[in-house]
Amino acid sequence: MNDPIRFTGPADILAFIPHTLGQTPTESFVALTMQGNKLGATLRVDAPFGQDPVGYAQTIVSYLTADDAATGSLLVIYTDEDTTEDPRPYSGHVEALRTELETAGMPLQDAWLVTSELWRNYHCMDTSCCPNQSLDAITTSTGNAALIYRGSAVTGFTAPAPFTGDEAAREAIAAHKPDGWPEDLEASRAAWAKVLDDPKSLTTQTAHQLAGALQHPTVRDYMMGDIITHAPDQFTSVMLGVFLTRPDWARVDTAQEVAFELMKATPEGQRAPMLCLMGWLEWLKGKSSFAARYFKLALEDVDGYRLAELLGELVNRGLLADCTRDPKKAYDRQLSR
Amino acid sequence: MADPFRMTEDDTVAPDASPLEDILELSLLTAGPITGPVDRPVKDHRLDEQ
Q1: Is residue B29 within 8 Å of A314, Cβ to Cβ?
Q2: How far apart are the C-alpha atoms of A103 and A50, rounded to whole Å?
Q3: Nearest alpha carbon to residue A114 among A86, A77, A87
Q4: How far apart are CA A228 and CA A323, in angstroms?
Q5: How big is the CA angle at A314 (ends A232 and A103), to the nearest 5 degrees?
Q6: Of A75, A122, A251, A307, which shows the fewest CB atoms inside 10 Å?
């Protein structure tokens, strides 16, 4: 096993956050738990526009308490709020958060403010010891270099592939939409399983077959569930990210890659099921911001698409997949070194 | 005593019924207020020390 990366200063911590979230946050609070001198969980929530400070602080802490090894916490506020009058934006919320974190046994150890132009310590206003720093100090930090060296990249949101097929695709996909008979369901699930086991077997014809199958809501649901191997009576649990054991995350990554390929073969107006599938998988991985973007794209593709509406509401109400709370079951990135 | 429930053709599942949509609708009944998306990814285990 490789040695852990050693972070020696705030720039390293600030470099770590985009690597773990997949993008640099904006207008967000990011809280990190500390387990002694080690980093624990990372949590990103939207900045509290007009929200009650105590309620907001309690919500954040309720997510962090899943880390039962936490002994302390760090906070990073990403915002471009005007700081000319108040150099500490959201000071009421930060104070409430400090109190709640103290009560939860994970006292706030430090906090920083990151804008689109600079970063600095949130608490210390003495520029002789805590001056404004350029964002370059984050990108040139040793922590960032170490993360990149180990194969991590801040990839950002992966936009779905555009349709590259021909006019016949729409009709072909529509012809493959199942009627809903049990044998249709089983045939679609078998074709899906075959491609998940061997993604290279995907052809344009298979892509049309799978995209057609995904147009039927029930068949779509079962195909989504089949990505996570489970017993039939666990369907509800699996769809909500409640897993008995650690799922095969490599199979989840494969499913996302296959869905991405299906997008190339699927024209506008038929892409919403795949977009929902991709968003649901991001949600299972703990990346609700990316999930929300896929659900929005699904609604742009098919106005009022019910699954996208419901999944979108799920993430907008802050619901997390249960597996994200348990490091033994949650998705983790595989770095190369 | 009420008559026992008997399923009729009118009670069969609609052809486009979605089990997942039913599950989500039930989950949302007890969900909290709108907060926006919450991200909680898991770090790589080698990114450990400060």
Answers
A1: no
A2: 24
A3: A77
A4: 12
A5: 105
A6: A251
**Under an 8 A CB cutoff, do B19 and A218 touch?**
yes
Q: Give the per-residue pLDDT at A199.
A: 97
How many Å apart are CA A111 and CA A102, to the nearest integer? 14
pLDDT mean over A64-74: 93
Q: How far apart are CA A142 and CA A168, in angstroms?
A: 53
DSSP A117-151: SEEEESS---TTTS--EETHHHHTSHHHHHHHHTT
Q: B-chain residues within 8 Å CB-CB of A233?
A: none
> pLDDT per residue over B19-36, tens digit each?
999 999 999 999 988 899
β-bridge partners, A31: A43, A75
Tokens representing A295? 């659900």
Q: Inform me whether the pLDDT recorded for A333 exceeds 70.
A: no
Q: Is A273 on the interface with B (CB under 8 A)?
A: no
Distances (CA, A) of A76 to A29, A178, A260: 6, 49, 33
Instruction: Give the predicted TM-score (pTM) of the model.
Output: 0.91
CB neighbour list of residue A42: distance below 8 Å, 6 or more residues apart: A17, A20, A21, A30, A31, A32, B39, B40, B41, B43
Neighbouring C-alpha atoms within 13 Å toward the C-beta of A95 = 6
Tell me the pLDDT tens digit for each residue of A142-169.
999 999 988 888 989 999 999 999 999 9
Per CB-CB distance under 8 Å, the chain A contacts of B38 are 43-45, 63, 288, 315, 318, 320
Strands A28-35 and A38-46: antiparallel
Selection from A214, A148, A141 nearest residue A184 by Cα: A214
pLDDT at A155: 87
